[in-house]
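Aim 2 progress update. The chain analyzed this quarter is reproduced below.
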Amino acid sequence: MSHLQYFAYKGQGEDKRVKFSYAQAVRVGDRIECAGQGGWDPKTGVFYKEINAQIDQAFANVDLNLKDAGGKGWSQVFRVNSYHVPINDEALAAMVRNFKKHMPDHQPIWTCVGVTRLGEDDMRVEIEVSAHDPEGVQDKTK
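Predicted structure tokens:
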């Protein structure tokens, strides 16, 4: 699988790679697939307690992850899957607010699921995305 490029951003990306044995993102040609990002501080790993702050930080972590993998960020995202503990109107409103902030020029496809638990005790949201980055793959071939 030498055509796949794996990424783990500095701080929590690298820490989670060591602790849980997974990458934060993989580039497959002109696509970037991102592992689920939670509302953790990317340097310390501490989770924000309030749901709006946790969702806002998860969006920021997705942006950091995409850029670390050579992408441009949310403008290239075409698919979002989000997982919530619990799923409620406040969490949905925070997601929509962030969609409008980070993707003002397009609407991605979105699957939103309520679950009983996520990968770490204090996680209340996990957001995974797929992004299309045709320029990035061209830059890599030059």
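The chain is about 35% helix and 25% strand. Residues 74 and 102 are 6 Å apart (CA to CA). These observations will guide the mutagenesis experiments scheduled for the next reporting period.
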